[in-house]
Design brief:
243 residues, mainly alpha, flat, 9 helices, two-stranded antiparallel sheet, single chain
Length: 243
């Protein structure tokens, strides 16, 4: 055990030495603080930045939505699903991302999620006055945000802590089997909010629309939503028949 600790300390010292040697004059201090406190120190600046955002997915979520709001939707874009060869999402459960679609992609140097320029190390601001990185198409923050939007269940511990370990629907203690839920169901977003401004749409996949609820509450909520969809279909078919 002693030898293992010595080897770990030596490896961390070497990694931090390499990191410091490559450090430019300007670099995000929060990333450095996190890198120096890691159990295993990152050996490159890009890995340090990626690790920082993976540690802070909610910050990445907020930043990605703010950058998208800065870009806005391209002229003529509409939220569609279908042709994956054209870059369209296969289902409405995938967040809309116009700059991932072939027709609106900005190409290298711009993030395919938010549409803003990508700078050195995948950072979202040009701290080095070097212009966009023409080899990059993702911000490091947007990578983490995209993963969070598509698989929020991977952050259950964080969401539990954020809610004080209380079920958002009943205010009772969250049990071990509690699940992540979208307050406004994604099928409802597709049906009723499809024409909302694009940056606003992303909020339905981000933290503003997520909650932790106990499994039995989630099951009942899903059943109620299914009954509502069924009633809506019956009403629509009745209207069509009477017309």
């Amino acid at each position: 055990m002693s030898n293992w600790r010595d080897e770990k300390a030596k490896a961390n010292a070497q990694a931090l030495a390499r990191l410091t040697k490559r450090l430019p004059d300007a670099f995000p201090q929060a990333v450095l603080v996190r890198a120096r406190s890691c159990s295993w120190a990152p050996s490159t600046l890009r890995v340090a930045i990626d690790g920082y955002w993976r540690t802070h997915p909610l910050r990445a979520d907020r930043l990605a939505r703010a950058l998208a709001a800065r870009s806005g939707a391209p002229e003529g874009w509409q939220w569609q699903v279908g042709d994956s060869d054209a870059g369209l999402p296969a289902t409405f459960r995938t967040p809309p991302a116009p700059y991932r679609e072939n027709a609106f992609a900005k190409g290298p140097g711009f993030c395919c999620v938010c549409g803003q320029p990508v700078y050195r190390f995948g950072w979202h601001a040009d701290l080095w006055d070097a212009g966009p990185n023409n080899n990059a198409t993702w911000h490091s923050a947007c990578v983490t945000a995209w993963q969070f939007w598509n698989a929020p269940s991977g952050q259950t511990k964080l969401l539990r802590r954020l809610q004080g370990r209380r079920c958002r629907e009943t205010n009772r203690r969250l049990f071990k089997a509690a699940e992540v839920d979208h307050r406004v169901p994604l099928f409802q977003v597709w049906r009723q909010h499809r024409n909302a401004p694009w940056p606003e749409l992303l909020g339905y996949w981000g933290l503003p629309n997520l909650q932790m609820i106990n499994r039995e509450v989630h099951v009942e909520k899903c059943a109620s939503e299914a009954r509502g969809r069924s009633a809506a279909r019956v009403a629509a078919s009745t209207e069509t028949a009477s017309a």
